[in-house]
Amino acid sequence: MGLTVRWLDRDEWPTLRELRLRAVDDAPDAFGGPGYAAEAAEAEDAWRERLTTSDWLVVTADDHARHEEADTESELNAPTTVGLLCLTPRMGDELAAGWIYSWWIDPRARGRGTVGLMVDAVDARCRQRGWTTVGLGTFPGNDAARRAFARVGFVAGAQQRGKLPPYPDFIPMTRQVAEHD
Q1: How many whole angstroms separate alpha carbon 80 and alpha carbon 82?
Q2: What order of strands is seen across the sheet that includes strand 155-156?
Q3: Global pTM?
Q4: pLDDT for 44
């Protein structure tokens, strides 16, 4: 599976919407927030706002679309987006300068180096901004995600309370940004 990463442009809200909804549908307990129905009902302006306040990374697999849902040869060979994450500044936080939210990888693309590829892209963006640390949160019970993040250098901290409902308690994980590619 050939993988590529890129940051979404500000006008790519349909791509963001489609991927975020796939992620929430695939793993509803892995994300804080209002849930699939509420996010699916959000207007275009809300999706555009997400792209103006944060950076969104997507991963595309060039041979991932080979599945029974493909109706044409074109669809069979079309690249498929298989990963998503959001990177935003973490204002006033002693844990990290940048924070990753909404990290999701399509189950069929897991275990193929996708996490490492995404971390490399995040590190490059953090270096552009002068950030030396980046963090994320995982929910208690999401041991598979914590193990995947630990393999690329994230270190778990003590469990913390969510700041606002409906966000539950979480386990912060941080890592030093790599100094170069």
Answers
A1: 6
A2: 3-7, 55-61, 80-89, 98-105, 133-138, 171-176, 155-156
A3: 0.86
A4: 96
